[in-house]
Amino acid sequence: MATKKARQQYIVGVDLGGTNVVAGAMASEGGDTIAVRSIATSAELGAEGVVDRIVGLIEGVVLDTIHKTGASRDDFLGIGIGAPGPLDRERGLVLIAPNLGWRDFPLRDRISGRLGLPATLDNDANCATVGEWWQGAARGGRNVVGITIGTGIGGGLIFDGRLFHGSSDLAGEIGHTTIELNGRHCKCGNYGCLEAYASGPAIATRAREVLVREETSSLIPQMVGGQYERITAQTVYDASHQGDAVAQEIVRDTAKYLGAGIANLLNTLNVDVVVVAGGVTAAGDALFVPMRAEIRRRAFRPAVEAARIVAGTLPGTAGVVGAVATFKMQHLGDL
Amino acid sequence: MATKKARQQYIVGVDLGGTNVVAGAMASEGGDTIAVRSIATSAELGAEGVVDRIVGLIEGVVLDTIHKTGASRDDFLGIGIGAPGPLDRERGLVLIAPNLGWRDFPLRDRISGRLGLPATLDNDANCATVGEWWQGAARGGRNVVGITIGTGIGGGLIFDGRLFHGSSDLAGEIGHTTIELNGRHCKCGNYGCLEAYASGPAIATRAREVLVREETSSLIPQMVGGQYERITAQTVYDASHQGDAVAQEIVRDTAKYLGAGIANLLNTLNVDVVVVAGGVTAAGDALFVPMRAEIRRRAFRPAVEAARIVAGTLPGTAGVVGAVATFKMQHLGDL
Questions:
Q1: What is the pTM of this model?
Q2: B122: which residues sit within 8 A by CB, 6+ positions away?
């Protein structure tokens, strides 16, 4: 009896953020992303308007993938969606998304229904971590912490080779752990959170505070007429790369805060990989070298020795890759 | 064909500490501890001397159990041992135990060989957590953090119903997480660790520091001739219970430190039970009420709502019960 060769099957991944939506396809057994596309989220259109945009984006990815690979529509297994939490994974709801203005929105079923394909929903930081674990810098890890640093600081946890969601899908909020008991006020209401020191906006805030009293920094001319808002984490990294002493100090301080936060995770969780992703990693060795030194100073030596601390290698697509992976794990079992 | 009723089988649990060793037996399906006994560790005798003492202790427990239950020697399945880490569980070694002066000591096989019974070795804080989970305050939890507060602050983690050891058996060192970036120096070499604020000795140290400048406190007469070492965590709790304002302030501060540490764990791990055990819980509501308030102030509301924060209900025996449980899990599968 002749066996027909199994056709290649595909999964679409969607990474929904407050500013942009990124989507792409992948072969179900992994490999490179295909037909990655990005559009503005346009949250001002409301939830149904954003759904329209996401559906259009996915249609484009599907057509492009068919065009590039010769696949047919029947070769698409489904859609993995990563979205900002908190979520109700079981019911596929986005419970609260301040950047989108959504409450209890059934994102999964709206997308699934419109496209006639099964879909899954998981937290965006979880997806980014799983993406780096499946195809990126955390490959081969058994216990992994993923830290995504951007406007906020998110986290994902993989324990004994499985994504860990906690008791109500909220695990991984490592940006909101206190590292300074009576420290900076955080948007979450707490004081001294890691995010209040080391997120992109927090880096910019700390730079502006220092620059008020500085006279020699390449960052000063950028603030024409006292426009402090022109200072961003990116301008700080750029100035640091170019040797600006003030900017370098800000980056070193960032490394200390992140180092303390990561040391806490190593002593608590004894993971074998910490993968740090997001805009902040643009600082490169200027960040990672002092960050690793701070981790060594604070964590137990055997916990440090057990772990590699690495930058993500899937900038821009880790969330898409991880969304594909979470769909695959839920529908086809393990990765 | 007549089926002979299966005989009740027993497991011995041993909880080895720097000061005392506690042992007891339990029926393999759980229930009450039988024949619990405690002796001084006498670490000064050296590792083999301590092994002699533990073997004698276990023999006593076995004989007592036989006497009380009518069991025979053949009804004992083995011995679970809890010991201070770091350990090599697979090889049954105590790697470093500063309070005992041991390095790379094959405790499991020395005990097993002397008694002719299989044995397992796990971390003492893990055992205490598993004990409270199996038979105590954390019963029914799916994701549990156990915090044991005494001379140090140890922790145990249960994720998705399984004890989590991390990548090299070091997970759970939650006493050594930074809550104050440039805070108090900790024995571990770090600054600002939770343990440096909220362990028994740290509580006593903070009390002594305050008393230097106090004139009215019931604790002052206890320091006859300036003997500050007479102030311990216990004298602070006692004075607090009796209404001493200075002692009450120390206990409230302790609650804040512990609250910050527990809030970090809730936001990171979204567990459904946090069980706090050890001497510090002697403070009762004076500690737990402000501690829960601090947790609510610092952690995300849904993470707080998902978790119950409880005191351990097996004081003195959680480690023994958990040692029995870890043996059972390794030899008979799940609990």
A1: 0.94
A2: B80, B81, B82, B83, B87, B89, B163, B322, B323, B326
